[in-house]
């Protein structure tokens, strides 16, 4: 008897649910819209701070937001697009990927309020369907071209820490080295042509950047090479968070070439930061040029609320909330542009980075590999890992020839208006 009653109740519930889904019964449908989904790269403390700021953005709009943070951002987004279930807003650090999505009609051009905050070099406009429009806006930025070292150590003869592992994107700490060296040796014009596929990988300036890196690293034992290839850019794990390469066991090194974001593992007062230019064998003419990166928000949804969310996130009020929610070590950095809140440095390291970004940098160039089409960027990552293991001239010539083949193939396909053509203005 009980089983019969249960079956009857179950059938009744299923029928009622079906009727509700068909909107045949008043009151079955809800007036509350689904939460907007935001896909982004931040996890851990960074992710919690961003999610907390996101939850405070309601301001009476009645919309709620769901944040999905992942270290495998490209893979996650590609799978969602293939399933025709993209997020409403995605936050990416690759101009190359964003350009690809814009040319395939996956992105929606930004409304004017958000587009006004798309400052160079983080968000160049794109020509799509014979219209020049803005498709993304930076939410936070990072200064590269930095060297970290232990307080009290001399910078005259540095021993370099190198950790190249990073899940699916291993190798990018090495591409950062080569990009930074090329920028300071050859200057922003050559850097820009190379990053946007208008300069051959076999150009002498490009080759020199690779060989300079090998020379700076010096002789390394097979054991140290293997350790660098298998150790995370964050260093070895500590009790609460990674130790950073400068403090990791087994790394007898004094200096590290890394972006400003790494400050979250160096929270004490025993580490200093300085511009990388003087370490790279570059020209004094390009000393005040810096490589930068960023995390850019783009709209994948037709929902007008997604456009409004990007406008709120990029507004002064949104950024103030984000800073207020974040621990000092992971607070987002913003350049001093009109209408944005000034950053109050939390410590001497952040003060130095803020001063370089907003006062002393004369030229800012976006991360070259993050401008390249994804196929070429990934090939660059792999080539760096191979070169690190074997920097012989003959091996380098082979690697550069392979990269040039990939570049030429992408360039040949660019005759199609829907194929990848990178923006050209990546230095400002």
Brief sketch in words of this structure:
With 428 residues, this protein is an alpha/beta fold.
Can you characterise this structure?
- By secondary structure, the chain is α/β, with parallel strands linked by helices.
- It folds into two domains: 36-142 and 294-356, Periplasmic binding protein-like II (D-Maltodextrin-Binding Protein, domain 2), CATH 3.40.190; 145-290 and 368-413, Periplasmic binding protein-like II (D-Maltodextrin-Binding Protein, domain 2, 3-Layer(aba) Sandwich), CATH 3.40.190.
- 40% of the residues lie in helices and 14% in strands.
- It has 14 helices and twelve strands.
- The protein has helices at residues 2-21, 44-55, 73-82, 95-103, 112-115, 172-186, 188-195, 204-217, 222-230, 304-313, 316-325, 348-360, 374-389, 393-413; strands at residues 36-40, 65-69, 89-92, 126-128, 131-133, 136-143, 146-150, 160-161, 255-257, 271-275, 289-299, 363-366.
- Strands 1, 2, 3, 6, 11 and 12 form a six-stranded mixed beta sheet that branches. Strands 8-9-7-10 form a four-stranded mixed beta sheet.
- Helix 2 (44-55) links the parallel strand 1 and strand 2 (65-69).
- Helix 2 crosses helix 11, helix 6 crosses helix 7 (188-195) and helix 6 (172-186) crosses helix 8.
Major sheet characteristics: 6 strands, mixed
Q: What is the name of the CATH superfamily of the largest domain?
A: Periplasmic binding protein-like II
Report the count of strand segments: 12
- In the predicted model, the low-confidence regions spanning at least 5 consecutive residues are 1-29
Number of domains: 2
Listing every helix as H and every strand as E from the N terminus to the C terminus, the arrangement reads HEHEHEHHEEEEEHHHHEEEHHHEHH
CATH architecture of the largest domain: 3-Layer(aba) Sandwich
Organism: Streptomyces phaeochromogenes
Signal peptide: 1-30
Protein name: Extracellular solute-binding protein
Keywords: Signal
């Amino acid at each position: 008897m009980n089983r019969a009653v249960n079956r009857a109740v179950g059938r009744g519930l299923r029928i009622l649910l079906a009727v509700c889904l068909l909107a045949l019964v008043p009151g079955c449908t809800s007036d509350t819209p689904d939460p907007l989904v935001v896909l982004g790269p931040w996890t851990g403390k960074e992710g919690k701070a961003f999610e907390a700021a996101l939850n405070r953005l309601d301001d009476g709009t009645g919309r709620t937001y769901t944040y999905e943070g992942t270290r495998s951002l490209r893979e996650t987004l590609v799978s969602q697009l293939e399933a025709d279930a993209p997020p409403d807003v995605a936050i990416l650090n690759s101009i190359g990927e964003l350009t690809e999505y814009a040319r395939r009609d996956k992105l929606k051009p930004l409304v004017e309020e958000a587009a006004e905050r798309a400052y160079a070099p983080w968000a160049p406009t794109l020509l799509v369907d014979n219209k020049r429009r803005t498709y993304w806006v930076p939410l936070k930025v990072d200064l590269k071209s930095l060297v970290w070292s232990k307080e009290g150590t001399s910078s005259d003869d540095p021993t370099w820490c190198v950790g190249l592992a990073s899940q699916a994107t291993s190798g990018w700490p090495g591409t950062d080295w080569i990009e930074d060296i090329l920028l300071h040796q050859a200057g922003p014009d050559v850097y820009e042509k190379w990053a946007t596929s208008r300069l051959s990988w076999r150009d002498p300036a490009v080759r020199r950047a690779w060989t300079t890196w090998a020379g700076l690293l010096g002789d390394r034992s097979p054991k140290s090479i293997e350790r660098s290839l298998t150790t995370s850019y964050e260093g070895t794990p500590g009790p609460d968070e990674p130790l950073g390469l400068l403090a990791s066991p087994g790394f007898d090194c004094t200096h590290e070439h890394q972006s400003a974001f790494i400050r979250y593992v160096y929270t004490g007062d025993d580490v200093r930061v300085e511009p990388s230019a003087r370490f790279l064998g570059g020209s004094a003419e390009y000393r005040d040029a810096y490589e930068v990166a960023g995390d850019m928000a783009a709209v994948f949804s037709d929902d007008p609320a997604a456009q409004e969310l990007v406008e709120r996130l990029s507004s002064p009020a949104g950024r103030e909330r984000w800073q207020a929610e974040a621990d000092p070590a992971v607070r987002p950095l913003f350049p001093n542009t009109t209408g944005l809140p000034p950053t109050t440095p939390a410590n001497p390291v952040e003060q130095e980075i803020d001063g370089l970004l907003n006062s002393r940098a004369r030229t800012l160039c976006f991360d070259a590999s993050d401008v390249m089409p994804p196929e070429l960027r990934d090939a660059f990552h792999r080539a760096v890992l191979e070169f690190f293991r074997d920097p012989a001239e003959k091996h380098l010539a082979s690697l550069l020839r392979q990269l040039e083949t990939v570049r030429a193939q992408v360039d040949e396909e660019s005759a199609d208006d829907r194929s990848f053509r990178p923006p050209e203005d990546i230095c400002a």
